[in-house]
Amino acid sequence: MVIVFCPALEPLMEALFISTGVVALAEIGDKTQLLAFILAARFKKPLPIIAGILVATLVNHGLAGALGAWITSVVSPEVMRWILGGSFIGMAIWTLIPDKIEEEETQVAKHLGVFGATLVTFFLAEMGDKTQIATVALAAHYGAPLLVIAGTTLGMLVADVPAVFVGNKFAARIPMKLVHAIAAGIFAVMGFLTIFQVDKLFQ
Where along the chain do its domains lie? Predict the structure, then answer.
């Protein structure tokens, strides 16, 4: 069996893998992961919680990806380069700031059932959250919004599904500061690479 590598697929795979990895790292300790802990402890029904997380994330990040694609169509490449570079550096700083979840976010949908409560609370918690902003920036950066949405959604599930099943005992063993520092480092590197167009130096 011969595996043929297609160079044209490389940037697409990079969009998927980077989006998955950086959001999974940024989501560790994020308020939506904390929300997953709370919902799991309250309802003790992991499958509808995970389904709610999946649907809420797809809708939320779908909107973010569409916004990222639209921005690239109306902003010049030179201006976009600085906007994206600044956004990634801003994300690096934001990732280092500890998140907390507001009590209202855990109460807003308590009468909607497990799936409905998860769907509504996760969607609202993700509005303006760092992972949603990251999805906008990544979609604009890579110009492949569908792959970015798939990657950021997968990253959310990688971080939040274990939270649903094992709860706070698992979280207590994660070196949050180290994980956030790694995610921040990736965002910062992407920001500087974008601003200084480092990729063009090797062409």
Answer: 15-202
For residue 33, which phi and psi values (nearest 5 degrees)? -70, -40
Please tell me the pTM assigned to this model: 0.76
136, 64 contact by CB (below 8 A): yes
CA distance 88 to 1: 41
Distance of alpha carbon 46 from alpha carbon 200, whole angstroms: 47
- The token pair that represents 13 in the structure block: 């795979």
Distance (Å, whole) CA 166 – CA 176:
17
Q: Are 152 and 95 in contact (CB under 8 A)?
A: no
Nearest to 53 by CA among 128, 138, 162: 162
- Give yes or no for a contact between 50 and 180, defined as CB atoms under 8 angstroms apart: no
Please give the C-alpha separations between residue 60 and each of 54, 55, 146, in angstroms, as whole numbers: 10, 9, 13
> What's the pLDDT tens digit per position in 17-57?
989 988 888 887 777 887 888 788 777 888 999 999 999 99
